């Protein structure tokens, strides 16, 4: 008879542990963290790469990020429209901020706006917040995940019309994110017109689509959503 030990049995606990480890560790994130580590040291050596990979794995294991479900249907035209409009907004807003900085005789009146979004997706909330912060003159100071609400610091909004325009800009940004990435059902649930060629179609954004008239009840959009102004 053979004296070899019996093969090890894989238990359910082992399978669950392996699955949890795979959910925690992303090789893309590991490579990105390793690259950041190498750039911080400024020396592309084998030792730095290995240490960066090990630290990347440890960070993901010790501080796992929650899984963000995604049930959208990306649209290439929608993504191109989103990026194109973002580039235009950055250029135009940069010129406006320069104009405000060089203007003498009047201090800019800024405000923090409360803007409830229409989507309840964490992913779309995060993308909308990031894209709004990229554009000069607007900065997300707080985001409420439970209510899908953004608090936006807007530069130089002295009148009620300027406040409404800043709020509409945030909602239009969210709409472009939805048309680029969301599924038709998610777009419909947000109260937006059906996607056509990556956007809202020939009619464009109606005022009702971006001022909350079509948003789910209880979102609280409207002029009273302004939290207050600062100088």
TrEMBL record:
InterPro entries: Cation_antiport_E. It is a multi-pass membrane protein. Keywords: Cell membrane, Membrane, Transmembrane, Transmembrane helix. The keyword rRNA-binding does not apply. Its main location: membrane. The chain crosses the membrane at residues 25-42, 48-68. GO terms for cellular component: plasma membrane. It is found in: Cell membrane. Residues 190-231 are annotated as: Disordered. Residues 211-225 have a biased composition (Low complexity). GO terms for molecular function: monoatomic cation transmembrane transporter activity. Belongs to the CPA3 antiporters (TC 2.A.63) subunit E family. NCBIfam families: PRK08965.1-5 (NF006521). This is Multisubunit sodium/proton antiporter MrpE subunit. It comes from Serinibacter salmoneus. The lineage of its organism: Bacteria, Bacillati, Actinomycetota, Actinomycetes, Micrococcales.
